[in-house]
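Write out this protein's structure.
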Amino acid sequence: SPLSVLGVSALPGLRTGASAHARSLTFEVQGRPPPPHPPRPVAGPGAVGDQRPSEEPQAMCLVWVGGAGRRAHHVAAPTVQPGGVVSYFFRGGALGSKRSLLHNLREHSASRSRYQGPTAPLASFFPRSYDLMYPRELYAFLLDYVVTRAEAAVQRCASSKEILSTHAPAAIALLERLAPLQRSEFKAVSGEDRVGSSRSAWSPENVGGEFSAEEWAVITGGPAKPRPCESESDGALAIAVHMEVAARMREQRSEPHRQFALNGDRGFWIAKDPMENCGRGIRVFADLEPLYQYAQSRAWNVVVQKYLEKPLLVGPDRRKCDIRQWVLITSWNPAVVWVWTQPYLRVATRPFSFAAASIKDPYVHLTNRTVQKKLDTPTSGPPMPRDDDEPSVWMLEKFLDDVGADFEGSGGLLASARWAEHTWPRILEAVRACVRSTQTDVGQHSAGRFELFGFDFLLDEALNPWFLEANGSPDLCEDAGPSLRRLTEDAVQEMCELVLRLREGSVDMPAISPPECDLVVSGAGRWNLCLREVVPRDAVEMRCKRALRPVFSKAATVGAGSRGLSACADPHREVA
């Protein structure tokens, strides 16, 4: 285990919490006495009281909490021993839950003026997503699906010579009718339009009548009726359609919420289980009906997200990849956040393809290491370290060398320069937004807590990072090859040294303004300080928001349409 590099010896016994999955190991740090006067825990709503032992410990203790079960909100948080540290925040699972993070990011983005410092617009780093647990979100998703399919048809038409034989006229008609409605609904469910989110006129009847056969062909991906240009009027019509297609392409690029960089000519979506990780509960869908049936079979407990159709591909065989970025939180309120400066790349083992046979192939579309290693090392039994590096894991230096100047809009610029000037700063912006958005959920906490998260990002063809999700208890790669195992051990060792020194008060934290930064701090190793707030948020305000959130969520997302959806036995079916 990477914990063996910490220079600690385990105290006897395994302490089990309220859940069978909530386990913690206590380590005694040799040669490190606890502070002579340990501080009292922070008082206030949401704080977890620490109990002083009858005997003062003779050495500083580090409690390492593991297991996905500890993320459940009903599990009691382990107490912090005087002068010790615990790798756990009560309610910190809000960052690892896809559903909680989606709603928190929306709220944070919609009210970002309340926070100090710049905040990146949500549409600039987070693929548009919908929580299908709520009927209104299902309605907004269905509108987005149709508009996305129409946009994909327009993109295909832009390169077609026989434009009258394509879906162009039907796609343009769909966009004219539904794009404004989709824009309005997206703003409503995302919280940008507070008035729209509470109105009752969001019935499916607003879609505006039945779809024509040609429009259904656009939505379902059916074939277009052939129509060659046989007359002068047909030629004039083809020119007019070409001009309209070009105008629609410009409109797509100018609408931030449409996220043009994500869209291709397919209209694919990905469905996720809100609480799973390691690639579990993730499906890629090319068509609406299978996605709808899948969500229905899971009682609508699904978050759908726009699939990045134009990802950056690496290697001679053009494979998909993503970034695993480690993030360390040593205080949530006020936020103190660190990032490991050497993320690694997780690479698919099979070439990227949209062929029908590859849609359900996890070795093409899912880059999680736990998924890819099953193909590379299909042996059973306990995980064992490898003697060679995994082909599905790349270090950052190898990745940047492979990309070179082969990315969209490079203009001769190397990937290493683009990473430093653009990609890395945008990753930090996304990390800050995610942590700040969950401060209300976590609330107040006692001193001496920290937690490690694994943030996942995809890169598009222009090296723009797109945040996918954050994972608690990230993979510590005990069974990895030498390069990744060495990187992990260094990160864990320097992390533990940092949190212990912070507890001792021996880290010289810089006085910075504004709190957003990317600073090398003496004694922090390769963990850079990325966010440091000084003033905590009001504890009473956060507690009230947590109490009222379920009431507001129910009122805003269910509501009563002109067809009385709130009174229906199955409002999801009524919407669809």
